[in-house]
C-alpha cells in the first residue's frame, strides 16, 4: 500500500487570505474550530458530525463546513442547522485553491467522520497542513497519521472523540503530522507502486 503524497507546493500559505477568511467566517483565535472539508456526500458522515457538535456545549466552539455537494445531494438541512446553531459556519460551494490553506489555517482539528469508506485525500491534506485529526477506526487501515496525530472513534462514539481531542497535546500532534506530511513526497508514493509493478511482471 502506497501512502498518498501531500500537497505542500499546491496550496502554499496565504496569510492575507487567512485573515480575510477569518473575518468572513467570524472565527477568532479564541475559538476552538472543527473543520469538515471536501465534497458533501452521504457516506461522509456529516450528519453525525453536525449532530455531535450541536450537543457539545460551549460558545467558543466552531464547526466550519467547507465543500460542495455532489449533484442530487441537498444542503437545506445544513442551512437549517446553521440557522439554529450560530456556532456552525458554512462555506458551501466550490473551494478555490487559494482558500484551501486559509481554511486549514482556521482549523484546530480536521474531522473526517466517514461512515462507509475513507479515501486518503483529505488525510493527506490534513498532514500537509499539520492538522490534528478525528478519524473513524476504519481509517487505521492506512496507518496514517496513527495515534500520535489523530483521535480515532468507533461507530456511534464521535461525540466522545470530539471531547477527547481537545484534551490532547495538539501542539505535539501538529508537529507529528507536519513531519509526516513533509515525508509524504510524490517520489515516496511512486516507489512502492513501481516495486509492485516490477514484482507482478517478474511473476508472470
TrEMBL record:
Entry's Gene Ontology molecular function annotations: glycosyltransferase activity
EC number(s) from the headed UniProt entry: 2.4.-.-
UniProt entry keywords in alphabetical sequence: Glycosyltransferase, Transferase
Pfam family, one: Glyco_trans_1_4
Superkingdom to which the source organism belongs: Bacteria
Protein name in UniProt: Glycosyltransferase
Origin species: Cyanobium gracile UHCC 0139
Lineage: Bacteria, Bacillati, Cyanobacteriota, Cyanophyceae, Synechococcales
Amino acid at each position: 500500500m502506497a501512502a498518498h503524497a501531500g500537497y505542500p507546493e499546491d496550496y502554499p500559505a496565504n496569510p492575507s487570505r487567512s485573515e480575510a477568511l477569518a473575518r468572513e467566517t467570524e472565527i477568532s483565535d479564541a475559538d476552538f474550530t472543527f473543520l469538515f472539508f471536501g465534497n458533501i456526500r452521504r457516506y461522509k458522515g456529516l450528519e453525525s458530525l453536525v449532530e455531535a457538535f450541536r450537543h457539545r456545549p460551549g460558545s467558543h466552539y466552531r464547526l466550519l463546513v467547507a465543500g460542495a455537494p455532489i449533484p442530487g445531494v441537498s444542503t437545506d438541512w445544513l442551512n437549517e442547522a446553521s440557522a439554529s446553531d450560530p456556532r456552525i459556519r458554512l462555506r458551501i460551494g466550490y473551494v478555490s485553491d487559494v482558500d484551501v490553506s486559509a481554511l486549514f489555517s482556521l482549523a484546530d482539528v480536521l474531522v473526517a467522520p466517514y461512515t462507509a469508506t475513507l479515501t486518503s485525500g483529505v488525510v493527506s491534506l490534513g498532514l500537509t497542513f499539520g492538522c490534528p485529526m478525528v478519524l473513524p477506526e476504519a481509517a487505521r487501515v492506512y496507518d496514517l497519521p496513527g495515534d500520535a496525530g489523530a483521535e480515532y472513534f468507533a461507530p456511534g462514539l464521535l461525540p466522545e472523540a470530539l471531547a477527547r481531542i481537545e484534551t490532547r497535546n495538539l501542539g505535539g500532534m501538529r508537529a507529528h503530522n507536519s513531519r509526516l506530511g513533509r515525508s509524504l513526497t510524490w517520489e515516496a508514493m511512486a516507489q512502492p507502486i513501481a516495486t509492485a509493478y516490477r514484482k507482478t511482471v517478474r511473476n508472470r
